[in-house]
Design a protein that fits this description.
The protein is 53% helix and 7% strand. By secondary structure, it is mainly α. It folds into two domains: 92 residues, no CATH class; 293 residues, Alpha Horseshoe (Leucine-rich Repeat Variant). It has a three-stranded mixed sheet. Helix 6 packs parallel to helix 9 and helix 14 crosses helix 15. The longest helix has 29 residues. The chain is globular and about 70 Å long.
Length: 460
């Protein structure tokens, strides 16, 4: 077996050593490399034309050629070395003649940007793979389990796609647009962005639409404050749609140059405004107690969306900066510094922590859905970030919720609520161990080490 070892630093690969071995490596234990079988990363649908109005032309062809079996369970497999040695058994038969195979081993420096991007890419892959187990999410992305449901449509050209996006953007940016009209147009953009990778790219390249959404989010918040903190269902529906649209734009693009340029310009002013307009009191006043229960549902949906957007912003910070404490714009430390100036941040984080306890302590309910599991992962990440890097938030969280975490949250219960077939289950359990250690002040837990079952899950 020929093996090549490479050192990866800043995206470059340098061959360090090449050697031949046919007996030592082949005797390795199958569990040595601690490998898992995970679902293949999903392909992104393309954009297709229909006879519908221009805004609804942004619909895709279902492009998955294989059924993603919801019963697929990540499990340990033989080492890559053994699989290489036995890969050609069908061709060589049982003659016992020697065969030659080549395996590339990569050594990645933890100080390189490539390593940071690899971690965040793994997190995105685990999140996406888990969401694809949800039939509702698959329908939203037009990913069907059966090829018979596919509709073959001609692919739109890049020029036509840009034309339709520009038309939708101009409709969104027009003056005196009603709240209902704005909501419907944003809903159209949100749905199309889920189904096509081109739209988020165009969104960041235009820049104007992102600034408009942030401004609308600010105006929505200011209008509530002018009414002495009174929110209405219309306010919450529009706010949620804006935040969900921004979230999908972040999630469906990686290190797009136009995105980084827009967000980092003017010392991150646009992101600062977005963060400050994003956080709101989880229990504000309403116009009438009659609509209290309905409003609480809308507020919960908004808090879920706000958590997801904040997670995407932090994930972006991890991708482009090596250190949490970097002074650079968009780093995780910079984002937390902006948030700490917000008066409602403690109540926002307490709400997120309460939802973690509620999700895992209800043993009478069904296991968490894929979407709920992803949201739990995002909440645990935010909690760990605040507990580790903000003494003020850590004090608020532990003083308010330490008893709930001590008596209502058990790892055994979490394992029952999280199906093992979810790719995100192991990362969640790893995060929960660290969160519990910080909430309960358990010094025996080493917070600097990764979970061996998920070595590339997102670190903070």
């Amino acid at each position: 077996l020929k093996s090549k070892i490479f050192l990866l630093s800043e995206g470059s690969a340098e061959e360090l050593r090449k050697f031949t071995s046919t007996h030592v490596i082949s005797s390795l234990d199958p569990e040595t490399l601690n490998l898992f079988r995970t679902p293949h990363p999903p392909n992104h649908p393309l954009l297709y034309s229909t006879t519908s109005p221009p805004a609804s032309l942004l619909t895709p062809r279902d492009q998955r050629s294989k059924t993603l079996k919801s019963t697929q369970v990540p499990h340990r497999i033989s080492s890559a070395l053994r699989r290489l040695l036995h890969r050609d058994d069908g061709d060589t038969g049982s003659s016992g003649e020697e065969r030659e195979a080549e395996l590339h081993l990569y050594i990645v420096s933890q100080t390189s940007r490539f390593y940071l991007q690899l971690r965040s890419s793994w997190s995105r892959f685990v999140i996406r793979s888990t969401l694809l187990l949800d039939p509702v999410y698959r329908r939203k992305c037009r990913i069907y389990a059966h090829s018979s449901r596919r509709k073959q449509r001609p692919v739109l050209s890049w020029e036509r796609t840009c034309q339709l996006f520009n038309q939708l953007s101009s409709e969104l940016l027009q003056d005196q647009l009603s709240v209902e009209g704005l909501y419907l147009l944003l809903q159209e953009l949100n749905t199309a962005a889920h189904r096509n990778l081109t739209l988020p790219t165009l969104f960041w390249r235009s820049g104007e639409l992102c600034a408009f959404l942030v401004q609308t989010l600010e105006e929505n918040l200011n209008s509530c404050q002018s009414l002495s903190g009174v929110y209405t269902p219309d306010h919450m529906l529009l706010r949620t749609m804006i935040v969900e649209t921004l979230t999908v734009m972040f999630a469906e693009t990686r290190n797009e140059a136009a995105k980084l340029s827009l967000l980092s310009s003017n010392n991150g002013t646009l992101v600062s405004r977005m963060l400050l307009a994003l956080i709101c009191d989880p229990q504000p006043q309403t116009q009438s107690s009659v609509i209290g229960s309905e409003f609480q549902v809308l507020m919960s949906e908004y808090q879920d969306a706000a958590c997801s957007l904040l997670f995407e912003l932090l994930l972006l910070g991890h991708e482009i900066h090596r250190s949490f404490f970097a002074d650079d714009v968009l780093s995780a430390g910079w984002i937390l510094g902006v948030l700490q100036t917000h008066s409602h941040l403690p109540s926002f984080m307490i709400y997120q922590a309460q939802q973690v306890v509620l999700a895992l302590s209800d043993m009478q309910g069904a296991p968490l859905s894929p979407t709920q599991a992803v949201l739990l992962f995002q909440r645990c990440h935010l909690l760990l970030l605040c507990l580790q890097h903000s003494s003020l938030l850590a004090q608020h969280l532990t003083s308010r919720l330490s008893e709930e975490f001590r008596y209502l949250l058990r790892l055994s219960q979490a394992e029952e609520k999280l199906p093992p077939r979810y790719p995100i289950t192991s990362p969640i359990l790893c995060l929960l161990v660290k969160v519990l250690a910080l909430m309960l002040h358990s010094p025996e837990v080493n917070l600097s080490t990764d979970c061996p079952t998920c070595p590339l899950h997102l670190e903070v």
